[in-house]
Amino acid sequence: MFVPALCICIVLRALGAQARVTDDFECKEFFYKNTEPEGMNQNAKKICQFMASFGPLYATLYLVYQRIPLYSAYIFDPLCFTDSGRTNVWHLEPQLSQPQDLYYMVRETQKNKKEYKEKQAISDDYRDTGYDRGHLYPNSFQYGEGRMATNTLTNAAPMDECFNQNQWKKWENKLRTFLRDTLRSDEDNATAYIVTGTVPNPYQQIPQREISDDPERVTVPSHIWTAVCYKHLFNDRKNFISKRDTSEVSDAVECLLVPEKQNTAADGTQCGIVSKPSDGCQCNTRGGIKPCCSTPCLYQDNHNSYRCYSGQTLTECSPQYSLITYTGERCKDDHPCATYGQDYYWCSTIAGSWDYCSPPLWTSKAINGKYCRSNHACGTYGSGYMWCYTDYDNWDYCCTSDNCYSAQNGQTCRFKHPCGFHGKHYLWCYTDDDNSWDYCCSSCQ
């Protein structure tokens, strides 16, 4: 199910915990199908965190200038059955400040805090703020010496003390028990892939100005979320996706279990933030990218394809944007719905042929605010930039994601500078701290 990571190990005699900061994850076995979540900040740093004596333990995507992780990805170990053995020793990551440094994860000291604090959080940032150093990869999900590697500031985000020590702790215990019992009932013939992440709030940071001479260094997340992909080795009917989200970091929200079946999620096999399906369905029709809200997207035998009503018009649709074709064939897992150099969306099917299919909504918006033509996705088409036709005669540059921090050509807007007009007649944003900029798609001012 997964491939062992190829990580360079430097043995630290005084400490077994290590990590490696790279341009690409060398530990993709912690992601379902070795595929990391998409649509994340392209400026974030990828860290493989491991123990010299245990091998790789988890992967972290870290925002340097926000000084919090976007997520940590890990695999549940059913041997973790107790919450005892917690340590209060925390660690820092030298390679974030000095990429060529041979030391990976080191114990936090008064000396190295001053040395490394420019590009990562330190424990002093949390003191007297009312926020805990909240683990994304839970400390209680490891055992023995393995817990050492979870106690790093690159795996921690500010969580309200009451929330972290009550609601979130209860949720971690509930999830641990549920997964342990489920894996045991399946005789360990399954793997639970987990991603726990944050949604950074650009308007709230710690330490607060009232208590610190060096304030507002660490971003407080507005949401904390966990997603589980449970994959059985032999019985696909036992597979499921589980997601828990918080509307605020002080609230508790129930778990949502989403079986892998039609009309549940845009892509039922992808780990990440899984959205609760809306009433009816939302789908991409062959005639254009628009909601199919009046009726569900269902297979109709008399038409030999999936159909739904959009207003009074019966039109073809795909119930799962990147998995199911217009005629109901399932795309191959390694060949989802995309253009693949053509001017229409298609995929290779598990039946051994190919068929037209619907793209995800978030891949097909141009910078003029219009959605791309339904048979002409955002792509380079031999050029050095992303573009698409918005109707049969006009084209424009386009974005690969439709959100407040998505710029053209896959770039991410700079933190605290979301997509907007910013005094211009077009949408744009800064994409780094050197004031590089790019066009973008959504007005967020």
TrEMBL record:
Pfam families: Endonuclease_NS (PF01223). GO terms for molecular function: endonuclease activity; hydrolase activity; metal ion binding; nucleic acid binding. Residues 54-280 form the DNA/RNA non-specific endonuclease/pyrophosphatase/phosphodiesterase domain. InterPro entries: DNA/RNA_non-sp_Endonuclease_sf, Endo_G_ENPP1-like_dom, ENDOD1, ENPP1-3/EXOG-like_nuc-like, His-Me_finger_sf. Residues 58-267 form the ENPP1-3/EXOG-like endonuclease/phosphodiesterase domain. Keywords: Endonuclease, Hydrolase, Nuclease, Signal. Residues 1-19 form the signal peptide. The keyword Nucleotide-binding does not apply. This is Endonuclease domain-containing 1 protein. It comes from Anabarilius grahami (Kanglang fish).
